[in-house]
């Protein structure tokens, strides 16, 4: 369970995070389609941490469950938090001028999705894709 952390503080950090996730997904042996799903989800969640969460950190881990391996990504920030998580997970809902498909899309693209957000404290989103 080696975890690596990368900052999400600038647009270029998003590019770097995408590259790290792509490489990890390749090394895990995910199919090209699954690699793209994971990179797309990571990109959306990293962007959310940067734009809505005032910057954050991505943690990348290889996890194992009953001999099955997976990639677990955690995006955490100390931003304003999300007042209504269910609303935020609605397709097309945005508090700003985004497309409102980041959270809902990431949930669909991954096998596991958990979100913990507290007003004034921040947001943590953890996603897993199993091989
Ligand atoms: N890390 C975060 N911190 C605070 N609010 C967030 C965060 N991530 C998502 N949100 C809120 O959830 C909404 C929906 O997110 P998302 O589906 O990615 O759409 P978009 O980013 O296009 O607005 C955002 O508009 C924002 O209000
Ligand atoms: Mg978004």
Could you characterize the architecture of this molecule?
By secondary structure, this protein is α+β, with helices and mostly antiparallel strands. It is 38% helix and 32% strand. It is built from four helices and five strands. It has helices spanning 11-28, 32-51, 85-88, 102-109, and strands at residues 3-8, 56-65, 68-77, 112-118, 122-130. The protein has a five-stranded antiparallel beta sheet, with helices on one face. β2 and β3 (68-77) form a beta hairpin. The longest helix has 20 residues, at 32-51. The two termini are 15 Å apart. The model has no long low-confidence stretch (mean pLDDT 97). It binds adenosine-5'-diphosphate (ADP) and magnesium ion (MG). Magnesium ion (MG) is lined by residues 44, 47-48, 98, 102.
Give the neighbour order of strands across the main sheet. Answer: 1-2-3-5-4
Dominant shape: globular
Attached small molecules: adenosine-5'-diphosphate, magnesium ion
**Main pleated sheet:** 5 strands, antiparallel
Query: What does the radius of gyration come to?
Result: 14 Å
Alpha plus pi helix count: 4
Overall helicity: 25-40%
Question: Into which percentage range does the β-strand content fall?
Answer: 25-35%
> Which structural category fits the helices and strands?
alpha+beta
H-E order? EHHEEHHEE
On the 0-100 scale, what is the average pLDDT? 97
End-to-end CA span: 15 Å
User: What assembly state would you assign to the polypeptide chains in this entry?
Assistant: single chain
What low-confidence regions span 5 or more consecutive residues with pLDDT below 50?
none
The beta-strand count equals 5
């Amino acid at each position: 369970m080696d975890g690596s952390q990368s900052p999400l503080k600038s647009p270029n950090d998003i590019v770097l995070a995408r590259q790290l996730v792509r490489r990890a997904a390749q090394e895990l042996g995910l199919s090209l389609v699954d690699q793209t799903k994971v990179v797309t989800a990571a990109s959306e969640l990293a962007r959310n941490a940067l734009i809505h969460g005032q910057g954050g950190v991505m943690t990348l881990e290889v996890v194992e469950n009953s001999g099955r391996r997976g990639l677990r990504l955690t995006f955490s920030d100390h931003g304003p938090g999300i007042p209504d998580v269910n609303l935020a997970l609605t397709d097309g809902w945005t508090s700003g001028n985004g497309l409102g498909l980041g959270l809902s899309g990431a949930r669909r693209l991954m096998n596991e999705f958990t979100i913990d957000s507290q007003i004034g404290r921040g947001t943590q989103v953890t996603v897993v894709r199993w091989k």
